[in-house]
Amino acid sequence: MQGDGEMAARIRALDWSRTALGPVEQWPSELRTMLGLVLQSSAPMALYWGPTFKLLYNDAWAHIPAERHPWALGRPGHEVWDDIWDVVGPQFEGVRATGEGVVALDQLLMMKRRGRPRETWWNYSLTPIKGPDGSVLGILNEGLEVTERVQLEQRQDFLLRFSDALRELSEPRDILRTAQRMLGEQLGANRVGYGETDPSERYFTTLDNWVDGVDPQHGIHDLSMYGAAVHAQLKRGEMQVIEDMGTDPRTAQPGVREAFKAIDVGASLTSSLVRGGRMVAALYVHTREPRAWSPGDITLVEEVAQRTWAEIARARAEAEAHASEERYRRIFDQASDLIVTSGLDRVITSANPAAAAALGLTQDQLIGRKTSDFLAPESREISESMLAKKIREGGTTRYEVLACTAHGEDLYLEVSSGLASDEKGNPIGVHLVARDITARKRWENHQRLLVGELNHRVKNTLSIVQSLSHQTFRPEQRPEDSIKAFEGRIQALAAAHNLLTRENWEAASLNDLVAEALHPFCLGSRCSISGPPVRVPPQTAVSLALALHELATNASKYGALHNDAGIVSVAWRRTGDRLSLEWREEGGPNVSAPLRQGFGTRMLSRALARELGGTVTLTYDPGGVRCLIEAPLP
User: Cis (ω within 30 of 0) for the bond into 537?
Assistant: First the structure.
């Protein structure tokens, strides 16, 4: 069994004769070949084999089953994934029935982790492994968990809807009820509430709750009855996360757990607001049963709390007078979003500090400039069309633009804008709020790139493996010789891939490439490597690695590495944009040209030259084989 990692060792140690797969030596060549590739790979890979999809996987994939590892090894897929088999089972059966692969993007799987079903999201592929008759013998699975990215997008989508819903409201109580309801439904909570504290920070008044399945808790509450540790944390303004009221040490004070049980609280999230060194308000989320809160849940409550407080402050300021410039300016200055007002000609009349900081200018420098000065050409067209739509139809427009800061940096913005009107209702200007979504855009682009790159590399690797198998397994050769040769070539391919992975698949050092290829064959000083620093692209690296493996294999069988005295030297030089690499053997048995060309000779003299776009000269001098490879470098 190839591979020296943990999973390779576990597979070797398992008594497979007691399983449906039978002894390892009786496994079909397709299974042994693919398992060797999987174990040699540094990417997460798993094999599901046979009628019941027995599971085999490599070290990089071992974290995916989490606490089911290593129990999952060798077990049927429906046993390992009994919690998600209703989703993935039909996909596996479909691949077996049709012989066509499956690619799933952003697939929701309710996977049991740490004793509880949890939402997880995945990008994965299921690739059929076929036998000589075309039947599907097994399935190769490669996957990437994207839970964090999907939950981030869900959270951002919710917050956009949340902000839109609150933006249309003017009464503080309406804002509060809407915020509590939306947050409670989003998290599947039993109770959500908001309240404010008196100057002593002890008494907490909540006028309204959103509830589902529990009683509301209106009125004045003495925070000290819920424990000194809980109360102190709230007064410090720290996000309070309690997953189990019955076991959390902060609720161990006598009477505290009983107090929470009396109001049906098994778990809670509480975000408190501290102003001027004093706790003034808090937003809390309760569930009746204990709950393991995710980082996304915690972040969502924090952001909703901040936005709820901001919206309530806005509504109160408008209700008090609409007229308090000082109060308006405080909100304007403290907002984290970019806020800008302008005339219909787009000349900026005011901008908040966040807008000035984001664009790399002072507020005074922004006033008098046009908003279009900071937009990319295509975004200017979007902005103009949105203005025309507002003038024509009224209302608020929401859109995304690409801006450029004064320092030349790209800034992606999510814009919500409306018209300012005079007393007669005629439009006289534009007010807009923009949120910086640059990080989200970069993340989305990166994820698309990763998925595309993953698909590309898998297809290329399988094509190379297929070509090697066709060239290696020939009727005139003994099966055991073919298997040994094939395993060596797969190892050479895997070594080249590992080298490229360390270099992020951009290029590989020629010195490292040659050293990796010769390492299994050379002991002591029998091999010498020399040449200037040269980096070769991925395709060239793979081709050279396979070529050097064939030369070294032949040298160990018939050439300089067949006895104890022979030596091998590999030297290269770079002339302009061309590479010249020479393989030279000395001190071995006398050699002569073979009577027929084997796979290695064909690969060197034909395939390698074609792959490199150069020439390969193979010479069988009596004193030792020489191979001169000349090719252009990009």
Answer: no
Are 245 and 267 contacting, i.e. CB atoms less than 8 angstroms apart?
A: yes
pLDDT tens profile 388-399:
888 888 888 888
Strands (E), 198-336: 203-211, 219-222, 240-242, 267-275, 278-287
- The single-letter DSSP state of residue 598 is -
Can you tell me the distance from the alpha carbon of 485 to that of 493, in angstroms, rounded to the nearest whole number? 12
Instruction: Of 611, 607, 514, give the one whose Cα is nearest residue 568.
Output: 514
Which segments within 437-507 are labelled E, that is strand?
none
Q: Decide if 239 contacts 209 (C-beta within 8 A).
A: no
Both tokens of residue 31? 């299974």
Side chain identity at residue 524, one-letter code: G
How many Cβ atoms from other residues are within 10 Å of residue 451's Cβ?
16
Q: Nearest-5° angle of CA 593, CA 594, CA 596?
A: 135
φ/ψ of residue 342, rounded to 5: -155, 165
Q: How far apart are CA 536 and CA 588, in angstroms?
A: 31
Tens-place pLDDT, residues 213-239: 999 998 999 999 899 999 999 999 999
3-class state of residue 606 by DSSP: helix
**Any bridge partners for residue 282, and if so which?**
195, 272
Q: List Cα–Cα distances, 628 to 81, 218, 584, in angstroms.
A: 53, 87, 9
Residue-by-residue DSSP string for 541-568:
HHHHHHHHHHHHHHHHHTSTTSSSS-EE
The answer to whether the beta carbons of residues 22 and 16 sit under 8 Å apart is: yes
Mean pLDDT to the nearest integer, 338-362: 89
